[in-house]
């Protein structure tokens, strides 16, 4: 039976507020402004007259309505995301799967047909039909098809051509371009490793020297930058650690330094995570930082009885501050809802609830979401099902 707990005490929260020591900077002003917005949200769930608190609810039905609508029709404002259409499919499908919302066979078929049109003859997927193959939308398309989870969806992926595409991006130093003649950063390595692992197209030769290149991206702070000599960043830190984990070479990086950097990214007042040092809280880092901590918890010799981060505070931030009243999830109070944040905030909620074998839910059991795989960010059962399917097919074409 999961442990169900309530919100932190309001007086305790007040003691955690940022203190600028009478020296104002742009950063400190913005931080105090966000804390004020967050405090207003938290205050709504406390009644100081009797020291009791109400419990926030996951407004599942409103999130489902918002997400389902996106799969059917989007507004003109989405024109700027024309190169991210495969990503939108993944963000929405993954969010719905975590909420345990079923989609109809008709919608599944429409998604499969659309994603098939995004696959190119030379291998890999573009962000939309007719667009060049790129590792980021390839990762999104493969994940989306695995979430749909039917044989029809699995068989859309041309594994032989996918492998050719991955080889075309491989660099001598072990890194990967995002697309042919494109930029090189740690996202490319992670996306290449993830899709190769899931579809059983990986090999030692394909990822020769890759671990060494990833290690070169770890910074003096302990996190990972996008490439050597860049600032440590939450998304890149996740990509680096997850990629090393797929390679089974996570021991090569400085885990104590990474752990120290990660735990200091959780904001003590807000409860959510920031992406970089001295930045504001952002709901999407609930996954990027939370999952990295969950991965570390998977392979340390003596995992602690409790979480490596305050999962109670993270759930508070998500349920109280990162839900849009009309459905969809957000960066922070006052921001617009979108599919990207819906995906990664819900993924972070899953991490906060399900650091196996512990299950800890803020509020009632109705707030529980499904378990996501901390490395691939696909619902765990769907991820395992796909790995078994492609393993049975073999790695030879």
Could you write a compact summary of the structure shown?
By secondary structure, the protein is an all-alpha fold. The chain has 16 helices and four strands.
Topology at a glance:
Layout: E1 3-5, H1 10-14, H2 26-43, E2 46-47, E3 52-53, H3 60-72, H4 85-98, H5 105-118, H6 135-148, H7 151-154, H8 159-169, H9 186-199, H10 210-215, H11 234-246, H12 255-263, H13 285-299, H14 311-321, H15 339-353, E4 360-362, H16 380-393
Parallel strand pairs: 1-4
Antiparallel strand pairs: 2-3
Helix pairs in contact: 3-4, 4-6, 4-15, 6-9, 9-11, 11-13, 12-13, 13-15, 14-15
Describe this structure in words.
By secondary structure, the protein is mainly alpha-helical. Helices cover 48% and strands 3% of the residues. It has a two-stranded parallel sheet with strand order 1-4. A two-stranded antiparallel ribbon has the order 2-3. Helix 9 runs parallel beside helix 11. The longest helix has 18 residues. It is globular and about 65 Å long.
Observed structural traits:
397 residues; mainly alpha; two-stranded parallel sheet; two-stranded antiparallel ribbon; 16 helices; 4 strands
- Strand proportion: under 5%
H-E string: EHHEEHHHHHHHHHHHHHEH
Q: Care to count the β-strands?
A: 4
Strand order, largest beta sheet: 1-4
Distance between the termini: 46 Å
Compute the number of helices.
Answer: 16
Helix content: 40-55%
């Amino acid at each position: 039976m999961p442990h169900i707990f309530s919100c932190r005490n309001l007086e305790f929260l007040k003691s955690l507020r940022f203190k600028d020591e009478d020296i104002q900077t742009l950063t400190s002003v913005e931080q105090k402004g966000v804390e004020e917005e967050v405090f207003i949200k938290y205050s709504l769930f406390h009644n100081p007259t009797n020291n009791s608190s109400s419990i926030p609810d996951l407004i599942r039905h409103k999130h489902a309505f918002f997400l389902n609508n996106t799969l059917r029709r989007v507004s003109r404002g989405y024109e700027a995301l024309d190169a991210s259409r495969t990503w939108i499919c993944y963000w929405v499908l993954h969010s719905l799967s975590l909420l345990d919302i079923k989609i109809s066979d008709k919608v599944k078929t429409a998604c499969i047909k659309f994603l098939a049109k995004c696959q190119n003859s030379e291998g890999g997927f573009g962000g939309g039909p007719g667009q060049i193959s790129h590792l980021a939308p390839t990762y999104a398309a493969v994940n989306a098809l695995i979430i749909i989870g039917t044989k029809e969806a699995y068989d859309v992926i041309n594994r032989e051509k996918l492998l050719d595409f991955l080889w075309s991006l491989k660099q001598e130093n072990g890194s990967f371009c995002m697309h042919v003649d494109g930029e090189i950063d740690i996202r490319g390595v992670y996306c290449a490793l993830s899709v190769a692992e899931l579809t059983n197209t990986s090999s030692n030769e394909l990822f020769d020297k890759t671990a060494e290149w990833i290690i070169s991206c770890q910074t003096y702070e302990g996190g990972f930058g996008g490439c050597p000599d860049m600032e440590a960043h939450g998304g890149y830190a996740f990509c680096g650690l997850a990629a090393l984990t797929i390679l089974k070479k996570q021991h090569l990086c400085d885990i104590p330094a990474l752990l120290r950097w990660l735990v200091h990214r959780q904001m003590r007042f807000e409860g959510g995570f920031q992406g970089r040092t001295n930045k504001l809280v952002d709901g999407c880092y609930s996954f990027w930082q939370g999952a990295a901590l969950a991965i570390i918890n998977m392979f340390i010799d003596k995992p602690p009885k409790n979480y490596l981060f305050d999962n109670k505070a993270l759930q508070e931030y998500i349920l109280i501050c990162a839900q849009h009243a009309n459905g969809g999830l957000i960066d922070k109070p006052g921001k617009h809802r979108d599919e990207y944040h819906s995906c990664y905030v819900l993924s972070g909620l899953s991490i906060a609830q399900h650091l196996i074998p512990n299950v800890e839910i803020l509020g009632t059991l109705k707030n529980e979401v499904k378990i996501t795989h901390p490395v691939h960010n696909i619902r765990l059962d769907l991820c395992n099902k796909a790995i078994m399917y492609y393993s049975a097919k073999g790695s030879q074409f």
